[in-house]
Write a structure and sequence with these properties.
34% helix, 5 helices, 4 strands, alpha+beta, 163 residues, 14% strand, single chain
């Protein structure tokens, strides 16, 4: 538990505090998954994938490329004074991503001296990029952020990729 209001603008705080918790109470974990509460997660498929993945300096999810949206009416508005660059480093969509267990402590401790960005997924990527601890986020083919709108479609898609 931390002392802040649980709002969209504080998602970065919530995520960083999750990394703090993991670093303190679960430092032996091989991986950490951050996901939104409205996402479907096929744990069997994830475990199968992670068994074959590298165990350090690792980030995976749905990788996005782009730059700041400067329109103040946008949900993802980023003022130039907060992020002056024209491109973000590649980042995994905040809807869900997985980090190897060595990354969350690095990100948490770096966050203590890094200016805050309210776009949590971008913030994690900026810190990982600056630390060189996340070499390059990788897309998992089955990390889908749209298109499957019914539980049956999600289950069918998962079963097709189980192998």
């Amino acid at each position: 538990m931390e002392d802040f209001v649980d709002t969209y603008m504080n998602l970065t705080l919530k995520t960083i505090m999750g990394m703090k918790w993991m670093s303190t109470f679960c430092a032996q974990a091989k991986f950490m998954m951050k996901t939104d509460d409205d996402m479907y997660v096929s744990y069997g498929n994830i475990i199968k994938y992670l068994d074959q993945s590298q165990k350090a300096n690792f980030m995976t999810g749905y990788v996005m490329h782009g730059g700041p949206i400067r329109n103040p009416k946008s949900k993802w508005y980023m003022p130039k004074k907060s992020y002056p660059g024209s491109k973000y480093p590649p980042f995994c969509s905040g809807t869900g991503y997985i980090l190897s267990g060595d990354v969350p402590p690095k990100v948490y401790f770096t966050s203590l001296s890094t200016p805050y960005l309210y776009l949590e997924d971008v913030y994690v990527a900026v810190m990982g990029f600056g630390l060189n601890c996340i070499l390059s986020p990788r897309t998992i083919r089955n990390f889908i952020i749209g298109g499957l709108h019914t539980p049956c479609a999600i289950i069918e898609e998962s079963l097709q990729h189980m192998g």
